[in-house]
Amino acid sequence: MSFSPKKWYLFVLLASTVRMVHAQNEFISANASSNAAKAALATDGDPATGWSPGDVSQDQYLLLTLQTPGDVDRLQIVADGLPTASLKAVFVTYDPMNPGNAVTYTITGKKPLTLRFPPQYGAHVKLVFKAGTFIIREVHVGYAEAVIRSADTLAAKPWLNAQLPVEQRVNSLLAVMTPAQKMELLREGWGIPGIPSLGIPAMNKVEAIHGFSYGSGATIFPQSIALGATWDKALVEKVAMTIGEETVSAHTVEAWSPVLDVAQDPRWGRCEETYGEDPVLVSEIGGAWIKGYQSKGLIVTPKHFAVHGAVMGGRDSHDIGLSEREIREIHLVPFRHVIETYHCQSIMMAYSDFEGVPVAKSKELLKGILRDEWGFDGYIVSDCGALGNMTSRKHYTAKDVVEAANEALAAGIATNCGDTYNNPAVIAAAQNGGIDMENLDYTCRTLLRVMFRNGFFEHNPMRPLDWHKIYPGWNSPEHKAIAREAAREAIVLLKNEGNLLPLAGGGNGSAGGDNGATIAVIGPGADDLQPGDYTPKLQPGQLVSVLSGIRQAAGEKTKVLHEKGCAFTGDGHFDPQPALDVAAKADVVVMVLGDCSTSEAIQGVTKTSGENNDYSSLILPGNQERLLEAVCATGKPVVLVLQSGRPYNLSYAAEHCKAILVNWLPGQEGGPALADVLFGAYNPAGRLPMTFPRSVSQLPLYYNFKTSGRRYDYVDMSFHPLYPFGYGLSYTRFSYAGLTTLQHADGTVSVKVTVTNTGSLKGDEVAQLYVTDMYASVKTRVMELKDFQRINLAPGESKEIAFTLTPYQLSLLNDNMDRVVEAGDFRIMVGGCSPSFVAGDRIKNSVGYASASDGLVSTLNYTAAYKADFALTPGLTRKDEETGKNMVAVSVENTGNLTDAGQVTLYVNGAEEGDVRHFELVPGVSKTIWFPVGETGTFTATFATKYRVVSKNYSF
């Protein structure tokens, strides 16, 4: 529905003042602690029906979801046998999982009971009763005075006038908000609750890294690490568009997704949420997800900004303490890419540190780099509990929650997931002057701008989520097909000795044919598909396991046997004999082993992957390794299917299994997808997004390392990994020919190569472009991924692939931390995996491919040099309309030929004043930077960058 401005003036959004609505129009769902199936009878408008908890001895609750969120100020309860003393508490909340404080109410009447209380905004009402025998016949809800969008209202409340400029609307709204209302604006409870009395709308959010994860019934796609393994930007964009469609269907507008952390330790439980260990892979796959999701008019919140993936010992949120060089070379790259390319409107800060300062208070990161350098103009979301972590709970950088709130507001963190901005002490401090109002206003502005820009004040699509409803389009046949496609593309074939795969025994025209094979499917994951963390409550039968997929795909003559063998975890009693008996009857054994990582709705399981579930050894958990060894000892050919959210130590499997497939955490269609690959209906082409080590003792281990000052190998182990980044086999073969490089006048380099399918089956190849900077003023990485393409080729078909390298992609941070391109030799390499190398002296000279079937190498003598050069010009003065402060300006222009970042500092009469300001400029572009000054009268302002100083006299 849409309205013209004239019609909107006359439209009444909420047409009455205090009102009492009738039952079936008031609530969209009802739930209860017991006898939940009858809970809706308390809201059906029929006083002859009702809900009773039954004969129970514990306190009970009735949870009702409002049809219209708002400022609730009264309830009516029609009940039988309910003494007033039996009503223990009433909550009005936006967050049913964390209802907050109970309202203080007065009771009048008996039948019905009427409860009155100060207006409390919410989307849910929770009634808590003492144990007893009673029946709740009907519940009605009343609202406080509503916002009426009439012409008179728009005159009195101009921020509701969509014809006014955004900044004018923001200013007029902030001018009337109380400090408590400003703190309420920043409170988080399954999104932004909003303030209906001011017309500020709610903003629903969801976690959606591999599907809409709230409620139950949405399509479950492969976990992020699997999407990274596809190396397919177009597919990931399609997956995200589909998730976006299901988000829109649920009346939600924002996803706290995707995860753009660069995962550098496989022990870290959150590897599964990432796209891998390389910043370019994470940038491109994460960017594709954002492009797809935003195409549905939705808001993304990429996370966790920043340096969250480099964790000490693989332990979640334990910091290593990286240098600015390492942070800028690796961990900021994906965030910079998506902010500048896709203009994300929200971002989530991390639990981690930035150069020793908790991100929750880092103005250097959250204002200097994010806003000043990259031009971010959205709002910042706190990771849950991150603001409170600055107190003695974790970091000891704030003595109490008020100090923590002030530090977070100074950094501009707008949405508080956790317990700080909504703390009563912080709200009291805001009212009595203990919170910096300038920082609070600044932070509120960042959120309000986004809400106004997106038209949420006029046309808010949000509705309270019904956690028990399957929304239109969820898990449709079309969406299931996309989930299966993504799961198939993610599967990585690591070993296929003797071309064991594809297996015989498949029906429906599979490559293996149906010749009566017997297949034993063994392992804890065989009939227990693991979808990964941030998975919604499962619908019955929603996950199709590997066992089910094999049985569905097997031909009529194929016999499929099954034995679990052991649990995912636990090192207690272990009896492999039933599994060995099944293996003895089979022609081939498919073993499904790996992680336990599933929906939070599943209780009583020990998870080995996912948030805050880090795993130290990388040996298959519990008795799984023992089971693998016992089955392999039978001599039967074993196909290992690794169902995991991270790399594992597969050293034994690499020696003793005939074939290895990595299925990752494949989403609901993982079983059929795996069967497609096993029986040859689909040719695998996934590539590893993370390095697989030989042992946990090699860690940290990633492909894009820097040269050593001594030896590389251990005394007792090779430096080389078991399986390198970018690795993956196929049922067909490919070769590379005709690699050419050409430097153009603008500094770009064209790279072309021809790829041919030399095998007998149609298949995908992932052509990967790597660069090695041979000699530089600083140490550079042995190799770096720069781009990639996934292509499909028929047998005998050839295709020319073209890449373009920009000067920025060839640049480095020199010894002065300036971004430059240095003339000299670059090794340009294109192949189906990352290049190999000899771990010794002259290592860069050894980087390359053993044969044309793997890839080709060319040396480019790059003849140009690039760098930025920043000119300073003192500017004008003005008075800031928001703060009333005097302002002076300096113009910075990049007169060089390369994009770079810098900083400018203001000195007033020789003394440094205000914050250091950051900037990033492309060649030929200038930017005006304004500084507040406290001086009046005549003074000298000096502006200084790393290499320039200019001064000017000003007078106020």
UniProtKB/TrEMBL annotation:
Residues spanning the signal sequence: 1-23
Domain of life of the source: Bacteria
Fibronectin type III-like domain ranges (all copies): 765-834
MF-aspect GO terms: alpha-L-arabinofuranosidase activity; beta-glucosidase activity; xylan 1,4-beta-xylosidase activity
GO BP: any one term: xylan catabolic process
Family: Belongs to the glycosyl hydrolase 3 family.
Protein name: Beta-glucosidase
